[in-house]
Design goal:
The chain is an alpha+beta fold. The protein folds into three domains: 179 residues, Beta-Lactamase (2-Layer Sandwich); 92 residues, Beta-Lactamase, CATH 3.30.450; 69 residues, Orthogonal Bundle (Arc Repressor Mutant, subunit A). The chain is 45% helix and 19% strand. β9 and β10 form a beta hairpin. The longest helix has 30 residues. The protein starts with 6 loop residues before the first helix and ends with a helix.
């Protein structure tokens, strides 16, 4: 017999959905989902988890956010990853089940208590019962909302509450991920040159460099000044790499493509992507995008917006008539802007002005 929600439960669910719809760009959707779920379905812990699969549907890492936070959960995560294939809810998660599902839906408690995943992980963190809600999968990741209890199993009332909430969670999650991805893609310079060819760094389990190119060393020295010494990775970078192994993140970072560091300086943007391996070693992929070569010069010379536009196209090799057509102005107006640009830059001709931009453009 199907359980129907009581009026007070429906009213609480509606209030939670209003709270979900009210989140803005400055708030974390993940935090909001955890709060709403924990308020409506009492439990010891609610966890938003991303199983990083690398596209082969087999997890190699796990990122999570939970309410309330548990140090014991994080400390024992290696055991969960090692035994996750024994979890009764693991295959349903991979199959993207639509409805909330409990461990007890699939196996009897006694059988679950004899598994390695229970004895090595859940018993140590004080969890006996779990219900999951599968959210839309992301590229290279499976996403799940996990509700955990110590003593009492989840009821049909709890399942019905989640059945009402989850479709709205999925829709909001898709929307938030799309927005976060767009912001992530546009985090670089507004007008940069095409990104350079990437460089690969190989590091061992001790994070000591096994293989690195001269250009990669130059990039690290440029973007981590004072923190990079030869082929030794900067401490800032190695500290970040250690955090990637078992990462507890807050806010919308969980919605972004995993394990990417963006480092900016006055000349451009360095994107560092990390892929850890089961033996503790890691590969770093580095890619640099340079700013518009005229931007730094223009900023230092206090050029106006129109002067910056003219100077940019000058550095791109455009003639004055071509620049006039591009910017929608008369050639004579372009000449007037160029005269002021020369005066502000302290140069006498176009070649000298362009050389200032070329110096910035050189890698």
């Amino acid at each position: 017999m199907e359980t129907r929600l009581k009026h007070r439960d429906l009213a609480a669910v509606i209030a939670g959905l209003r709270e979900l719809q009210g989140f803005d760009a400055g708030a974390s959707l993940v935090q909001r989902m955890l709060k709403i779920t924990g308020d409506l379905v009492p439990c010891e812990m609610v966890t938003y988890g991303k199983w990083l699969t690398g596209g082969n549907d087999r997890p190699w890492n796990f990122r999570f956010l939970q309410r309330p936070a548990s140090e014991s959960f994080r400390d024992h995560l290696p055991a969960l990853l090692a035994h996750i294939h024994e979890h009764p809810l693991f295959e349903p998660m991979l199959q993207q089940v639509e409805q909330p599902l409990k461990i007890s839906d699939l196996v009897a408690p006694r059988k679950f208590f004899r598994t390695g995943v229970y004895n090595e992980f859940y018993r140590r963190v004080g969890i006996q019962h779990q219900m999951i809600c599968v959210l839309p999968k992301l590229p290279d990741a499976r996403v799940v909302l996990m509700l955990n209890r110590r003593d009492r199993d989840f009821s049909e009332r709890d399942r019905q509450v989640l059945s009402v909430l989850v479709p709205h969670f999925r829709q909001a999650h898709n929307h938030a991920w799309a927005q976060a991805s767009i912001r992530h893609r546009h985090q670089g310079p507004e007008s940069g040159f095409a990104s350079s060819e990437p460089e690969l760094i190989e590091a061992g389990a001790d994070l000591k460099v096994r293989q690195i190119s001269a250009r990669a060393i130059r990039w690290l020295q440029n973007y981590f000044p004072g923190d990079c010494h030869g082929a030794i990775l900067p401490e800032t970078l190695t500290a970040w790499m250690r955090c990637q192994s078992w990462n507890q993140t807050t806010g919308e970072d969980l919605l972004l493509p995993p394990q990417t560091m963006l480092v900016k300086n006055e000349t451009g943007l360095l994107e560092v992507t990390c892929r850890s391996h089961s033996d503790g070693s890691a590969n770093l992929l580095l890619m640099e995008t340079l700013h518009d070569p005229s931007a730094a010069v223009a900023q230092g010379a206090s050029l106006t917006r129109r002067e910056r536009e003219v100077y940019r196209w000058m550095c791109e090799g455009k003639t004055y008539p071509e620049t006039a057509i591009i910017l929608g102005m008369k050639p004579r107006t372009v000449h007037k802007h160029v005269e002021r640009i020369f005066r502000k830059l302290g140069v006498e001709n176009r070649l000298q002005a362009e050389r200032l931009g070329w110096k910035i453009k050189q890698p």
